[in-house]
Design a protein that fits this description.
Layout (H helix, E strand, L loop, with lengths): L9 H17 L8 H24 L2 H27 L5 H27 L11
């Protein structure tokens, strides 16, 4: 499959699903009333998909890798916050496990794409001469 837009990227699709799940669990009490923490974990999970999109749209592999690195960091931040949410009894074991499994999987996939881009001779769409 040829990737023509960021919405075609598997990592963006997975990040979007994770962000949606985070939003759903933070809508429930008591999580929904801890406004600062709720907003923080929502922001971190949203940052994953947003940085993948922004990096892709920059059109160069070096810039894309920089934004993928930020997305990977936000993935770790989301996973770390899931421990706090679990420890505060805001989420149950199933939700905690889902966030952890998905974020670890996503982080690995982001790393794989970064490795591929680092080794690729193609430097990005903005350098491609039609």
């Amino acid at each position: 499959m040829k990737v023509e837009k960021f919405e075609d990227l598997e990592i963006w699709i997975i990040a979007r699903e994770l962000c949606k799940f985070i939003f759903e669990i933070t809508e429930k009490l008591p999580f929904s009333k801890d406004y600062k923490f709720r907003d923080q974990i929502r922001s971190a999970s949203g940052s994953i998909m947003d940085n993948i999109a922004e990096g892709f749209e920059r059109g160069g592999n070096k810039e894309f890798m920089q934004f993928l690195s930020i997305a990977k960091g936000s993935c770790g931040e989301t996973r770390s916050q899931s421990y706090r949410a679990f420890d505060f009894n805001y989420i149950n074991q199933d939700s905690f496990d889902k966030i952890n499994i998905e974020s670890i999987n996503l982080s690995k996939k982001i790393s794989s794409l970064m490795s591929y881009l680092k080794q690729s001779e193609f430097k990005g769409s903005k350098f491609h001469k039609p």
